[in-house]
Design brief:
Elements (H helix, E strand, L loop, with lengths): L1 E7 L3 H12 L4 E5 L6 H6 L1 H19 L15 H25 L3 E4 L1 E6 L2 E5 L5 E11 L3 E3 L14 E2 L1 H4 L8 E5 L3 H12 L3 E5 L11 H13 L3 E3 L2 E9 L2 E8 L6 E5 L1 E4 L3 E3 L6 H4 L22 E3 L10 H15 L13 E3 L4 E6 L2 H7 L3 E7 L4 H5 L6 E7 L5 E8 L2 H13 L4 H5 L10 H11 L6
Parallel strand pairs: 1-2, 1-6, 2-3, 6-17, 8-15, 9-10, 9-15, 10-11
Antiparallel strand pairs: 4-5, 5-6, 7-16, 12-13, 13-14, 18-19, 19-22, 20-21, 21-22
The structure holds 1,4-dihydronicotinamide adenine dinucleotide.
The site of 1,4-dihydronicotinamide adenine dinucleotide has 28 residues, from helix 6, strand 12 and strand 18.
Length: 468
């Protein structure tokens, strides 16, 4: 059997590429070494963490936020087993959904470890050791990423006491104390989950800000909100050691600028210091596929590697490690392979942190515009002045819009607030169409909605908001 496309890896990049390619009439095979499809995102990443973020937020609200709405209930008790069962059921529904899509689109799904033998040939080693070779005109590397660990520090992750995100969604009990190494997305999302469930959480972060790379105003406000929720922060602190200790594990860190070392103990330590491209055992060296200086598969503007007929998408190539970026690359590449003109607009990729409140961002930050010397204007609107937010006791946060000073074209949007991850998309769509803040401010928004704050921020960008 010879395929038009063989895709190695069935995460959001690989499975979406497969479905799109099949929809466009190509004969497709996917190769997956996990027992279930969907990659890190569906099995141990985005999807299970969102199940736990939602459930833990409900638990927290039941314990803290109901009486102000006139609902008096006794303090809730946690059934962590059932919460984990909800998470597992959510994962199962999603990974089964991918299996269904493969069947529906007549995609051959082959279980086993895929290795590129040469352009056009992939060997698949099944769990029982049997090897089969499949042939295809095109090969797509969509193998994703793995935990990077702490640069320069030897850490033994046992997923019980010293954990990565994988252990962080599967703890059997709520630890009394949790140290999170890394104040990025994973650290703050999973830190929030265990903090809401009762753990005392301390974040140790190398940079002088959490969520490095986000708009500075957003990360500062957000840190204050998390501190109010009870999370402690040690910023500008470089972790130099993580090892098992009497109480569980201990973390040693020192001020980035130099100074005395500090050691903290905790029942559990979460390592959330980034991810790296997964390329091991793929036969890339033998096949002559080049990597860049950061160990990512090197591609051109059309996802082509240096070897004809071999392509790569998702976390294994450059760009943000985000499921939706990988999906869009999967679609674009499938279109290219089918003779169309697939394209990804990297300027408009939203990013969301699913804490409470949520943080959502698209396009440029104020810091990026300053550094690039772009003349810009800013419009802001707080949820404290939004009627719907008041009615829902969700007044924490604000919307910030950045537009070109001369043309008014929107260059970036940043939202801190309940439902930010949904609201960001109207700014993203506007930016895709090259829209201005006036376009957004003059678009009718339903009342009363949280999204009216987006409209008001746009009004504030090109003239003045009404409700402030
Ligand atoms: P990250 O890159 O977001 O954050 C890692 C943090 O660790 C950085 O702030 C870094 O300064 C810090 N760090 C590194 N070495 C350190 C040291 N020695 N001491 C103290 N701090 C140190 O990585 P994270 O959170 O592990 O996430 C990995 C990837 O997964 C990211 O690319 C992220 O975008 C993606 N992801 C996205 C999610 C979302 O979109 N909601 C959710 C979860 C993950």
């Amino acid at each position: 059997m010879s395929y038009d496309v063989i895709i190695i890896g069935t995460g959001p990049g690989g499975y979406v590429c497969a479905v799109k390619a099949a929809q466009l009439g190509l004969k497709v095979a996917v190769v997956e070494k996990r027992a279930t499809y969907g990659g890190t995102c569906l099995n141990v990443g985005c999807i299970p963490s969102k199940a736990l973020l939602h459930a833990s937020e409900m638990f927290h609200q039941a314990g803290h936020g109901m009486s102000a709405l006139g609902i008096d209930i006794p303090a809730p008790t946690l059934n962590l087993g059932n919460m984990m069962a909800h998470k597992d059921a959510t994962v199962k529904a999603n990974v089964d959904g991918v299996a269904f899509l493969f069947k529906k689109n007549k995609i051959d799904a082959i279980k086993g470890n895929g290795k590129i033998v040469s352009a056009g040939k992939v060997s698949v080693t099944a769990e029982d050791g049997t090897v089969q070779e499949i042939e295809g005109k095109n090969i797509v590397i969509a193998t994703g990423s793995e935990v990077a660990g702490i640069p320069g520090v030897q850490v033994e992750i046992d997923e019980k006491t010293i954990i990565s995100s994988t252990g962080g969604i599967a703890l059997e009990k709520v630890p009394e104390t949790l140290i999170v190494v890394g104040g990025g997305v994973i650290g703050l999302e999973l830190g929030s989950v265990w903090s809401r469930l009762g753990a005392k959480v301390t974040v140790v972060e190398y940079l002088d800000t959490i969520l490095g790379g986000m708009d500075g105003e957003v990360s500062k406000q957000f840190q204050r909100m998390l501190a109010k929720q009870g999370i402690d922060f040690n910023l500008s602190a470089k972790v130099t050691g993580v090892e098992k200790g009497d109480k569980g594990a201990k973390v040693t860190f020192e001020p980035v600028k130099g100074g005395d070392k500090v050691t903290l103990d905790a029942e559990v330590v979460l390592i959330a210091t980034g991810r790296k491209p997964f390329t091991a055992g793929l036969g890339l060296e033998e096949a002559g596929v080049a990597l860049d200086n950061r160990g990512r598969v090197e591609i051109d503007g059309h996802f082509k590697t240096n070897v004809a007929g071999i392509y790569a998408i998702g976390d294994v190539v450059k760009g943000p490690m985000l499921a939706h970026k990988a999906e869009d690359e999967g679609v674009a590449l499938a279109e290219i392979l089918a003779g169309q003109h697939g394209h990804v607009n990297y300027e408009v990729i939203p990013s969301v942190v699913y804490t409470q409140p949520e943080i959502a961002s698209v396009g440029k930050t104020e810091e990026e515009l300053k550094a690039a010397g772009v003349a810009y204007k800013v419009g802001k609107f707080p949820f404290t002045a939004n009627g719907r937010a008041r009615a829902m006791l969700a007044t924490d946060g604000f919307v910030k819009i950045l537009a070109d000073k001369e043309t008014d074209r929107v260059l970036g949007g940043h939202i801190v607030g309940f439902g930010a991850g949904e609201m960001i998309h109207e700014i993203a769509v506007l930016m895709e169409f090259g829209g201005s803040s006036e376009d957004l401010g003059r678009s009718c928004h339903a009342h009363p909605t949280m999204s009216e704050a987006v409209k008001e921020a746009a009004l504030a960008t090109f003239f003045k908001p009404i409700h402030m």
